[in-house]
Amino acid sequence: MFDLTGQIAVLTGASKGMGLAMAQGLAQHGATVVISARTQSTLDKAAEQINQSVGTERAIPIACNAGVKDDLANLITQTHQRAGPVDIVVGNAGVNPYYGPTSQIPDDAYEKTMASNVQGNLWLAQLAAPDMIARQRGSMMFTASIGAFKASETLGTYGMSKLALIGLVRNLAAEFGPSGVRCNAICPGLIRTDFARALWENPDVEKRIKNDIPMRRLGDPNDLAGVAVFLASDASRYMTGQALTVCGGSNMWT
Q1: Which entry of 98, 99, 158, 238 is annotated as an active-site residue?
Q2: Burial of 178 by CB count in 10 Å (0-12 exposed, 13-18 middle, 19+ buried)?
Q3: Cα separations in angstroms, 168 against 51, 57, 190, 192, 236
Q4: 112, 204, 208, 219: which is closest to 157 by C-alpha?
């Protein structure tokens, strides 16, 4: 039920960290993965890593700024040309250009956060959906955050964008469900990635691990690979519109 042989997956934000781990997991279960990020050279190295791990050519690197609609359109067009119709979407790209109170955020930082984290994923869904609707099946997943479920004096706008993303996922699930297309959100806790380095290098994190995380460790990017495989595969064929937390238990009550 986890077999993805012959399926085509498109991933954004997949040159490193959680996106790369999810791409590798999908490839290990048989999918062809089209990985995207802004820098082609970094993508080429990531594709080589994936291909070496599975022992065959299953990763296709295509540079794309996930916050630019024309770039996303080109990503889907090239996917059609180089791999085929899209079966799986993983919208993992995201930004956080501002650290501070939401009440003081500059307009440009607010607009960039919402445009990249919400509208960019809407564009990706709109572009990929026709392939899935035509075959009456498909799976989309988008990386949100446990920050969506609580207020923050420093990361509030980022959390707002991720809560809006969960709202987008629920609406897409309702709209695409009759066509057999599933849409879900993945909500990581604090993961050891470059994106979150400023948080997990904070000296107070050790205290947080001991007090707030039942599993007593931070997340690792590879902790997301199995979730992506599950949501992409028939193992989750009756799940849609959900927000799955992957947080070591720190948000078990949300």
Answers
A1: 158
A2: exposed
A3: 33, 34, 23, 26, 20
A4: 112
Model confidence at 232, pLDDT cuts 50, 70, 90, reads: very high
What is the helix (H) or strand (E) element at residue 184, kind and residue range? Answer: strand 181-188
Indicate the pTM of the whole model.
0.94
CATH architecture under which domain 8-246 falls: 3-Layer(aba) Sandwich (3.40)
Burial environment of residue 54 by CB neighbours within 10 A (0 to 12, 13 to 18, 19 or more): middle
Q: Which of 145, 12, 20 is nearest to 88 (CA)?
A: 12
- Looking at residue 217, its pLDDT comes to 83
The answer to whether residue 99 is catalytic is no
| Segments making up each domain of the chain, as ranges | 8-246
96-122: average pLDDT: 97
